[in-house]
Amino acid sequence: MLAYNFILQLYSFPKSHLVTSQSRIVHLTAYSPFSFSFPWLAQACSINSISHRKQKCKSSIFFIVVNEFCERFSYYGMRAVLVLYLKYFLGWDDDLATTIYHTFVALCYLTPILGAIIADSWLGKFKTIVYLSIVYTLGQVILAVSAIHDITDKNKDGTPDDITLHIALSMVGLLLIALGTGGIKPCVAAFGGDQFQDHQEKQRSTFFSIFYLSINAGSLLSTLITPILKAQECGIHSKQQCYPLAFGVPAALMFVALIVFIVGSPMYNKTAPQGNIMVKVCKCIWFAIKNRFRHRSSNYPKRTHWMDWADEKYDKLLIAQVKMVLKVLFLYIPLPMFWALFDQQGSRWTLQATTLDGRITVNPILILILVPIMDSLIYPLIKKCKLNFTSLKRMTVGMLLAALAFVAAGLLQIEIEKTLPKFPGSNEGQAKFLNMVNRTLDISTGSTQFALEPFEANDYLTFEDSFSMTLGTNASYAVTVMDGARHTIAIIEDGHIPRHLMFKDITAKPEKGANAVRIFNGYGSVLNVTVGEQNFEKIVSNNISEYVMVNQGEATYHIKDDAGHKCDYTQKLGFGSSLTLVIKPDFAFGELKGDTIRGAPSNMKSVLQAGWLLTVAVGNIIVLIVAEAATLEDQWAEYILFASLLVVVSIVFAVMAYFYTYIDPTKIEAQFAELEPEEKNKQVNLKVSKKELVEQRNEVRRRSDSSVAEDNSHQMSEL
């Protein structure tokens, strides 16, 4: 989180929004989005002598802030469980789930450029927000529907019969969400800025403090609530983890955001599209490149900067502004590596969290706590110590802190992997033996021989396809194991002759730190066992129950037989274990054995924002490339690889920052202010010259046509 705070210093406007080019909003980035003074909402409007104008301003601000809170809740809530949905519901492995996740995030940060162009050049911000919010809401609804397993569960076994339909729906939903959320990113904050006049700088600053507070509040609450919703069990035919609820609530919040925004329509100050500065900048750059290539001969005099080749068509002020923008954009080149690490909170770190307690909510909490502390205490203290801690130096520190965070994640992964079992490969299976005979048994499985005490289990053994098993001295069996599966072989006694029962075990660590518990009934009667609200159903003798997920902590099992005898057994459970409770044949109610099997011009801010968002998109693409190219078997090694890459990039960025010269855009703009009339006259003269040239050509054509007509007429008269 500290790394994120430092990274924000070069560009105080956060990565999730792209401002447009209208003159009313260009001051937006002059204010830190986290300078929280927590004023009353009314302070966001100026005191106006006309009371209804004041009320109108209050109301419009309210609708925009509520809209942003709901939209951010919707987006971050959906993202909080997305990678888990891809892995556990669609059945994709960690790598594919991570790939799809980062592809989706990259799209979310590429589409804002399209949204800004649509808003500034065609529809205007209000209509763009409304239309793309409809697309956004539709995508959220489709994603929620794709998570309903019952729509294709014809045999009612709790598993979708046509996973292809669910994949298709989810991909369509994610595409619409990326288009919607990306499209409105450049518009909402800028539309809020439109509600103020140019002289209302203080009110605008207050509004954005409230605005960004709503963003972080929405993010915090959604990342807290959505995993809880997912953990609920729902379904028509069978109970499953409730992804429809986890996606449905964000969809409902997005619908609320849309309705709230539309309701406030009569109170908004809506500006007409005035053209997008990004388009103009791109045209200027393209003309300079094209003109430079056209005049590459040594016969033409050289120019100070390659952008100066655009002065034949564009005024000098615009060219100077583009130069300043390009200088800042050059500094953005190393930043994608930071976002490559930062956005893995939603993919690799979330998957890592499933081996712990499954919650990643500290970061948004720390954002709300630490950013004001940094702005009001740490940075002023550094300034008083007369240390020149510039924005670029803060960013360098931020990237190094992010690298350290990934080193910590790598060390944590090493410790996690020590507790994780080694699962079988695709061409092998594993089996362990549970001795339910009331004497020690000698067991042979080919090259492996061992003795197993009564009611004890050994560790898993790995086999290929099948193996021969000998129990005691005269009982031999051929056993076949499924590829990639784990089995428990329970040995019981049938007329003093041992025989075996085979049960399939789980091959994945339980989610959210819960424990997968099942019960083997070695008692001679049917048993009914409950723990909390979970019911193991009726377990017949010499059989094993299905797994039931039990939370960590003390678990009390209530056991009851057909005769009405009852018994309670309490066991302390850890995190993410797989356990089998064994009820012995000589079990007496009252006892139970538990056996565990375990710097730019103001009107260029939108261009910089486009570059800023592109660094996020490219960062997510880097995750895809590195993860695929590295092919590292151990996850901790991938964490260390990313950390090492960021350290190298941080050093490069530090060198770039050292040679960077800070420029005051206002001074540059002031120098060209006096030349503006001359530039305008130049453009006018250029247009007049072009017009005169066209008229001269047309006059020549008319004379030529007239001459031809006279000749034809003369020839006809002679005939």
Task: Explain the overall architecture.
The protein has 719 residues and is α+β, with helices and mostly antiparallel strands. It has five domains: 1-21 and 312-421 and 601-674, Up-down Bundle (Growth Hormone, Chain: A); 59-275, MFS general substrate transporter like domains (Growth Hormone, Chain: A), CATH 1.20.1250.20; 422-507, Immunoglobulin-like, CATH 2.60.40; 508-597, Immunoglobulin-like (Sandwich), CATH 2.60.40.2890; 676-718. It contains 17 helices and 18 strands. The chain has a four-stranded mixed β-sheet with strand order 6-3-9-10, with no helix packed on it. A four-stranded antiparallel β-sheet has the order 5-4-7-8, with no helix packed on it. Strands 11, 14, 15 and 18 form a four-stranded mixed β-sheet that branches. Helix 3 runs antiparallel to helix 4 and helix 10 runs antiparallel to helix 15 (635-658). The protein is elongated. The model is unreliable at 8-56, 590-598 and 715-719 (pLDDT under 50).
